[in-house]
Amino acid sequence: VATDPAWAAFADETGCLDVWPDPFASILSGMSGASVVETWRGVLASVRERQSSASFDIRCDGPTIRRLLSLALFALADGSVAFRSETVKTEMRSPIALLDVTEERDASETVRMCSWCCRIDAEGWAEAEDAVHRLELFARELTPEITHTICETCAAKVECTLALDPVRV
Fold this sequence. Notes:
By secondary structure, this protein is an alpha+beta fold. Helix content is 30%, strand content 30%. The strands form three sheets. It has a three-stranded antiparallel sheet with strand order 1-2-3. Strands 4-7 form a two-stranded parallel sheet. Strands 5-6 form a two-stranded antiparallel ribbon.
């Protein structure tokens, strides 16, 4: 596993290294949410079995930044899968406590976040800023826990990619 300095800086800024300190561990070990793990197992199995590639656009947001990545996966001869990501676009925003991994959390309450597009399930999938208002999170003493899932739109894009020869979603 290799990461570039930009990834390391982003991971440090967002606290990702506190949550997932070993980037050399299995990628699945750093994921939460059964649907997320199962989706990635399916993606990895498909790339391996076909000895092919797949690419997706995903979001990797932090409390003060929206980040769109192009993620490409390639089957290697030894049965492993290589990942390559490239930042497509970044956009700064006002800090969102919900996305800050250092915030104290209310373990009795959860909100669902799509691990692919970073939208929040707030009586319909919404950007974090809109979800905070819809769910009235600003009025709460503690921030709810985030559980990860994959929204219907992103799941359909992944299924389409895996059903076809390598395509961009």
